[in-house]
Amino acid sequence: MSVIVTDEGFGQDDWNGTYASLEDGGAPGIDLPSDTDPAALAALPEGTSMVRIAFPSSADGRGFTLARLLRMRGYRGRLRAQGHLIADQYAMARRCGFDEVEIDDALAERQPEDQWLFRANWQAHDYQARVRG
Amino acid sequence: MPRKFTPKVITGNALLEGDVVYLAADDSWTRELSQAELITDEADAQVRLIDAQARVGEVTGVYLADMAEGETGPEPTHFREDFRRTGPSNYFLGKQAS
Amino acid sequence: MYRYDDFDAAFVAERNRQFRAQVERRIDGSLTEEEFKPLRLMNGLYLQLHAYMLRVAIPYGTLRSAQMTQLAYIADKWDKGYGHFTTRQNIQYNWPKLRDIPDMLDALAEVEMHAIQTSGNTIRNVTADHFAGAAEDEVADPRPVAELIRQWSTDHPEFQFMPRKFKIAVTGSPNDRAVTAAHDIGIRIVERDGEIGYQVLVGGGLGRTPMIGKVISDFVSGDDLLPYLEAIVSVWNVLGRRDNKFKSRIKITVHEHGIDAIRDLVEERFAEVKPLFSGVDQEMLAAITAQFAAPEFRQAPTDAYDAAYESDPTFRAWADTNLFAHRADGYAIAQISLKAHGETPGDATSEQMRVMADLAERFGHDELRISHEQNVVLPHVHKSDLPEVHKILKAHRLATANIGLVSDIIACPGMDYCALATARSIPIAQQIATRFDELKIEHEIGDLKIKISGCINACGHHHVGHIGILGLDRAGVENYQVTLGGDHTETASLGERTGPGFSADEIVGAVETIVETYMSERESAEETFIQTYRRVGMAPFKAALYPEKAKADAEARANAA
């Protein structure tokens, strides 16, 4: 089982669609590994309504750039970060364009809801919002 | 032929204080190298290391350090461990001052 | 100088609140050590050989007196009464305890300082020319744009977990005092047809694979700079290697893909990123620039200076080596050497910090600078005040007249403190300085930069020292490799190895031999070490350093003939 983290805290997964890789396609959801080539994002199928980007380790920040690129290139569907993200990275994920974070139960137990809600204020104190205008 | 196992102590830094600590035979952490347990058996060293590394609330950066048997306990065989048990050479600070 | 607005102050307070919670969550087990480590590093906290170490940013090397006074207070209250100024315009405290760190950060915030992104795989403290805003030779003050970059890079959500660290330096002068060619990004302010813009270098760096930065763009206009920087870092964040720590820096990415390919990717990314910047950053830059307006310089006679210069040889020696030309009439840039012979390069006691803060307040328009050469600078002192300033400095062992000389040595902390070090640096620097002080020839030697690193990571910039020294562990013994001919300025170059290394006992003698060789080779007292080296090359130095080898070679040649 996994837990979906949003600004409201912990929740159940309400996404019922299936996932496919970028190469295979044919599903409403697309799973992207963290080493996806930015150029390959152009192949995102029309009508994709969920993109899930993997974070194999909390030290691997490539997913942040991939999320940014998807948003810059016009993707408006759901965007989910999945894997080993810690509560301290929640604000980064949201600021890069993710809607939500999917973590496993063990991590949710170690870092309970209050630690994630601590960063639900991600829109405040944001230098990027300030310098970009 | 496998290399001969050289005696070792288990060492790391205290989580809260940050200073150098060594594992003693009774499983407590000591600030004195002379009080550390000198482990001479390789299998024993590996098991002791795994257990010590699991004590994440007490210590951090735990590893096995080569030592030789001295008259007053383990003695460093490398200058890095000598500095760790002593302190910096530019000021009289750290372990040498305590 | 830049003052925090409400946003900056609230940001730092919130960040400190987060870090305080992170420390407690590490202690209660919510965060594993693996998870906590990048978080503590991005807040400046290391675990070193004997203790934790807190690295505090001094953005673009600029400090007000009140800030320096607070650094002294922190040294006394939570450390051991001193601090170490580094080549990256930071100050390091070597003995804090984990639970004291949040309080230290709050104390820093009181004077608008922080330790954010002084470590970790993030964009690090932005450095700049330590003579900024004071030097005669400047196109523009680099600090306003450095401050803008500080704000842009701080807590940048995309760039907190990059392949490796990322360093940016800015110079506003064609005479590069910020070592820009040895940074991941080097920015040089240039003027083109009356417009101020930026020449951007990428892929410089020292360390295991030293490289001189390559020009990625000759001219980036002001409103393009932040999106251009963002494009570079964004391209590297995905392209940079994460499989091998030694190949992760952007210098390797540039080397592997070629500067032209990287430039194309950056241009492409720039086109995507640019529309996200509304241009408000240029209004911010204008407001920041106004805050860096020069102080009101005084018009006054310099008789007191002239008289002291004539009558006091100690003052004259100090003035000749430690002063630098100021842009304002009657003013000088006064450099305070933290290299008293036999002392630890870059260290200042809390008392010395207070003395320097007081001097800045009384005589220096409240400004101090930290140089990458690990010295302190009073950037604006009227010459008539210099005799008094010198007298006070002398009383506190701060008047060493050796800036740019053989004893003005850059040295990293080395194995006396650093967990990464392979050998000690500090004692070598102390011994070299003491030796040349005994010989009383350092003024005769003239401009000579010795730079010492205690490991391959090159925090002591040894590759770009005229004489570079690298401390290594050779089979359990400290051993020192020597390079000659490095240059850290706008004509940057990497030094060349002399040959086999020297033991700790031999290294001071080896440096002496190198200096003697230079003295006998130079055409006149005006020809500096680096000039002589470039003219005569490595051969005479090699012959002097390795006489046995030279003799054997000569015999082999004779036998062959």
TrEMBL record, chain A:
InterPro entries in the cross-refs: UCP030820
Taxonomy, superkingdom: Bacteria
UniProt-listed Pfam families: DUF934 (PF06073)
Name of the protein: Oxidoreductase
Taxonomic source organism: Roseivivax halodurans JCM 10272
TrEMBL record, chain C:
Residues in Nitrite/Sulfite reductase ferredoxin-like domain copies: 52-111, 346-395
Domain of life: Bacteria
GO molecular function term, any single one: heme binding
Pfam families: NIR_SIR, NIR_SIR_ferr
Limits of the Nitrite/sulphite reductase 4Fe-4S domain: 119-272, 408-545
Keywords per UniProt: 4Fe-4S, Heme, Iron, Iron-sulfur, Metal-binding, Oxidoreductase
Official protein name in the record: Sulfite reductase
Lineage, highest ranks first: Bacteria, Pseudomonadati, Pseudomonadota, Alphaproteobacteria, Rhodobacterales
